[in-house]
Amino acid sequence: MSGLIVTLLRVASSLAIASFVTAASTQWSWAEVPEPSGLWTGPMRGQTPTTLTGATVIDLAGLEALMPKDPVLLDVGPADQKPEDFPKDRLWLPTHRSIPGAVWMPGAGAAAFEATKEEAFFRRVNELTQGDSSKPIVTFCRPECWGSWNAGKRLVMKGFTGVYWFPGGISSWQEAHDTVEVKPEKDWQPPPAK
């Protein structure tokens, strides 16, 4: 009889632990991030939505499938900032690596642009698409980057219909492919930090 009691206690204990783990994982899981109605104005790093209305959200396989269509690859990742304690007698030579063929416009996913900066952004995008608002344009950065979401949203709001958002960004690309060093677009400077 005592063996039966021990077995029942073990089963009850296992069920209690399983219930606690299930409740805890439900309580502590990431909540779905809703899309803002316009551009995101909060911190540029953090959990992003899984959707971007008006655009197609793609993973690495989706980007690989899109590559034969020669999409515009728009990297909006920020430029590295020189650390405040960087030795004054050393040369600061940061590099930015991206998907081969990408156009790097650091900070182009900022929520607020001056009118001239927004004009420069759309002028360059129009050049890259040759005025075809349906040409595939892929916006990306790094994972959990609101900047790439904002860049895609800005394009959708302007009437571009071939917008793709690649939330895995450069990190996802590097899992299967090489990256190359890219320079910022000529005459493009990121918007001033606010």
TrEMBL record:
<dbReference type="Pfam" id="PF00581">
    <property type="entry name" value="Rhodanese"/>
</dbReference>
<feature type="domain" description="Rhodanese">
    <location>
        <begin position="119"/>
        <end position="182"/>
    </location>
</feature>
<protein>
    <submittedName>
        <fullName>PQQ-dependent catabolism-associated CXXCW motif protein</fullName>
    </submittedName>
</protein>
<dbReference type="InterPro" id="IPR022376">
    <property type="entry name" value="PQQ_CXXCW"/>
</dbReference>
<keyword id="KW-0732">Signal</keyword>
<feature type="signal peptide">
    <location>
        <begin position="1"/>
        <end position="23"/>
    </location>
</feature>
<dbReference type="InterPro" id="IPR036873">
    <property type="entry name" value="Rhodanese-like_dom_sf"/>
</dbReference>
<dbReference type="InterPro" id="IPR001763">
    <property type="entry name" value="Rhodanese-like_dom"/>
</dbReference>
